[in-house]
Write a structure and sequence with these properties.
This protein is an alpha+beta fold. The chain contains 25 helices and 11 strands. The strands form 3 sheets. Strands 6, 7, 8, 9 and 10 form a 5-stranded antiparallel β-sheet that branches. A 4-stranded antiparallel β-sheet has the order 2-3-1-4, with helices on both faces. The chain is elongated. The relative contact order is 0.13.
Length: about 750
């Protein structure tokens, strides 16, 4: 591995014009594709194998004109103070709005509030339910504009009108957070690398990589049914790892220059050593993201593969474009420890050797007090993880939108006028094809549901043309994301099981609320298998990298500590409301269902980044003859500064997304930022050196039979030491690399 990457780095350095041209061409091609592609909306949502999805599929089959997956809108009308919706003028305005909406080419039905009993008891609020024959993502702009125009006409007539449902998707706004995050990353890079040119390289390559990745996702959004959040998550992860991977190679390049090597040899060695760590760190991230496919939820699978593709691009750019750009930079990138024109400082070689840096001093302290540091780190993370015990899972709805959006205002108005359950009606689908009396089955179902706690109303059964399938709408007395509504869904399903045994008819619960509940349950069920798969594969990979059993085991256990602590922080902020005002969390409630499994995947991959970058330096020192405790100090001497900078950069990038108006993006941004903090500064910087100091030589133990069986990946670049005196590459080197 190291030898191949060494040759690749030197080739990219020499053929820099060709390499730069390839990446610019790819960026241009992806940009043209994105510019010509239609805008992405929300991806279709399906949960194979769940009751809600079975009911959804049944309705599509038995009610062919129903468009069960079609977009919906609720146009909510509120009368002025002192007036009623039943007043003649207000009623005429609503009826005109209903007529205007009915003329839409994609509209299948519009329910008149005065005929559908959709007026509140106090007469101040009414709503018209609009159904479309296409999904929200496929809805034409003309249909959305017609919906907004009809609402505006009603507003001009004196009514307060808001629109809920998925026909009008709220466009997420990230504000200036991303720009601030990148600005912080730039400052950290300048301080770490000592010059504007060196600092600009990781930023430039990361932006190019993200540009290619996000543009490709945008271009393929409609053919592959990718939602608008897919590109945001890919950008978040791609920026973070892209900057970090480039930073590690540039830092190693400057260190190689400081040892007196010429620039081509230095870049070859930097890519051969730090590049090897980048490859394996990137591979762990890709495994974690691609492993989301085991959950068997198409939306999550697509998000994982899209983000994984962006990580692959970041790795390839770090291995090829960074060497090419370093070739263009020439002497503008100085050896480590040389004078910084930007910061105006100079360190002589003798001063650098006699005065230990911060990483050396910290590692020496940990080696002297390993037990105290270990206990402090474990107890601290354990305390942060305590809120996980009260974790509640759910999916965001219009009630979690910012109060400034029309969706949120429609949600609140309906809650005030009709009760919170009107925002999350349950749909009962009854398959009575095998029953002798379908109408009796429907009436039995209605009677049983009316007898359950938490039910406000149950609609009459609506049958299909064949008369063998019916639907019933149930309005709960609690909001969609509450545990009371979840309990009601389970109670209806228990009643349906009894009806099944008595009449041989299937009674299934579906609707958005039931789909969300099933989604949460499926995520819970998949968490342990996913964790076993991802951690297991990465564990095997790290055994090959570190040639040790205990080091990968320690890495996995440390990751579990950091992810539990991060989830605890997420619960404290987004569920309990701690610091919610500071972070702009307008509505507390259940944690997004995919958050635990998503954090497990992403944080594990990122945590292994720091593990690989930091511990490979320790192993490099150990295999070169240093004692275990001294190897820990040496690893920190060379790697702590860069790992710290990488962690701060990643935290800044993730934290930049906390300003998003989309609750899911806000939660993920905060969760990943705090997870990186816990993992980099508590686990990798404190717990890892403490454990390695306590284990001593045992940390690097590997059974002889396993040592012989494992491939030699040579992350430390040991194979390059045989070529130390070689000043130029082998004449056939480039042709050999092309053949490989």
């Amino acid at each position: 591995m190291a030898t191949f990457l060494y040759k690749l780095g030197r080739l990219a350095f020499r053929r820099r014009h060709f390499v730069a041209l390839i990446w610019v061409a790819l960026l241009t091609l992806a940009g043209v594709g994105a510019a010509s592609a239609p805008a992405a909306g929300s991806s279709s949502f399906s949960i194979p194998g769940t009751e809600a999805q079975k009911a959804f599929d049944l309705l599509e089959e038995r009610f062919p004109g129903m468009a069960a997956d079609g977009a919906t809108a609720r146009v909510v009308f509120q009368a002025p103070d002192g007036e009623k919706m039943t007043d003649a003028a207000n009623k005429a305005t609503v009826e005109k709005t209903v007529q205007d909406l009915s003329d839409g080419s994609e509209v299948t039905s519009v329910a008149d509030p005065f005929k559908a009993n959709a007026v509140s008891k106090d007469g101040t609020v009414a709503y018209a339910a609009v159904s479309y024959d296409v999904s929200g993502m496929e809805l034409k702009d003309a249909s959305k504009e017609a919906l907004e125009d009809a609402a505006q006409d009603a507003r001009d007539a004196g009514l307060t009108v808001e629109i809920g449902g998925d026909a009008l998707q709220a466009t997420p706004e990230t504000g200036s957070g991303e720009i601030i995050g990148i600005a912080v990353a730039a400052v950290v890079l300048v301080i770490t690398l000592g010059s504007l040119v060196a600092a600009g390289l990781p930023l430039l390559t990361a932006l190019i990589g993200v540009g290619i990745g996000v543009s490709s996702i945008t271009a393929l959004a409609n053919p592959l049914d990718l939602g608008d959040t897919t590109a945001t998550l890919a950008m978040m992860i791609g920026l973070a790892v892209g900057i970090d991977y480039a930073l590690f190679i540039v830092s190693r390049y400057r260190a190689e220059l400081a040892e007196g090597r010429d620039r081509e040899e230095a870049i070859g060695r930097a890519v051969g050593t730090a590049g090897s760590a980048v490859v394996f760190a990137g591979l762990t991230v890709v495994i974690a993201l691609a492993g989301l496919a085991v959950v068997n939820i198409p939306m999550l699978t697509k998000m994982g593969f899209a983000a994984a593709g962006t990580v692959v691009i970041a790795v390839l750019i770090a291995l090829t474009m960074i060497p090419a750009l370093l070739g263009y930079a020439g002497r503008k990138v100085q050896p480590a420890g040389s004078k910084s024109k930007f910061l105006g400082r100079r360190k002589s070689a003798s001063a650098a050797e006699t005065k230990p840096n911060m990483g050396t001093r910290w590692a020496s302290f940990v080696v002297r007090r390993p037990v105290a540091v270990l206990l402090f780190g474990v107890i601290g993370l354990g305390a942060a993880a305590v809120p996980v015990a009260s974790l509640e899972l759910g999916l965001p709805d219009d009630g979690s939108q910012p109060t400034s959006t029309t969706q949120r205002q429609a949600y609140d108005t309906l809650s005030d006028g009709f009760g919170p359950g009107f925002n999350g009606p349950l749909m009962i689908a009854g398959d009575a094809k095998g029953s002798d009396d379908p109408k009796a089955v429907a009436q039995t179902t209605i009677d049983d549901i009316k007898g359950l706690d938490g039910v406000v109303s149950v609609s009459p059964a609506a049958f299909n043309k064949a008369g063998d399938t019916f639907t019933i709408t149930v309005i709960p007395d609690s909001k969609p994301s509450s545990t009371q509504t979840e309990d009601l869904v389970h109670s209806i399903r228990d009643a349906g099981a009894q009806i099944k045994s008595d009449t041989d008819a299937d009674v299934l619960v579906t609707g958005t609320t039931a789909m969300n509940i099933d989604f949460s349950q499926k995520m819970n069920d998949a968490l342990v298998p996913y964790l076993a798969l991802v951690v297991g594969l990465a564990f095997l990979l790290l055994i090959a990298v570190f040639r040790s059993i205990l080091v990968p085991l320690k890495a996995a256990l440390g990751f579990l500590l950091s992810v539990l602590a991060a989830l605890g922080a997420v619960v404290a902020v987004f569920q309990w409301g701690w610091l919610s005002g500071l972070l702009g969390v307008e509505e507390t409630g259940p944690i997004m269902s995919m958050m635990p499994i998503f954090m497990v995947g992403v944080v594990f991959g990122l945590a292994m980044d720091y593990e690989v970058f930091l511990v490979t330096r320790m192993r490099e020192a150990y295999v070169h003859g240093e004692k275990p405790s001294q190897a820990v100090v040496t690893g920190f001497k060379h790697g702590a500064r860069v790992v710290t900078a990488a962690a701060v950069i990643m935290m800044a990038v993730f934290a930049g997304f906390i300003g998003s108006s989309e609750s899911m993006i806000k939660m993920i941004g905060f969760g990943l930022a705090i997870a990186v903090f816990f993992d980099a500064f508590v686990v990798r910087m404190a717990i890892v050196p403490a454990v390695l100091a306590l284990l001593g030589h045992k940390a690097w133990w590997l059974p002889k039979w396993l040592d012989r069986a494992l491939p030699n990946v040579d992350v430390e670049g040991e194979g390059l030491r045989t070529a130390e005196d070689r000043s130029n590459a082998d004449p056939d080197e480039e042709r050999e690399l092309v053949r490989v």
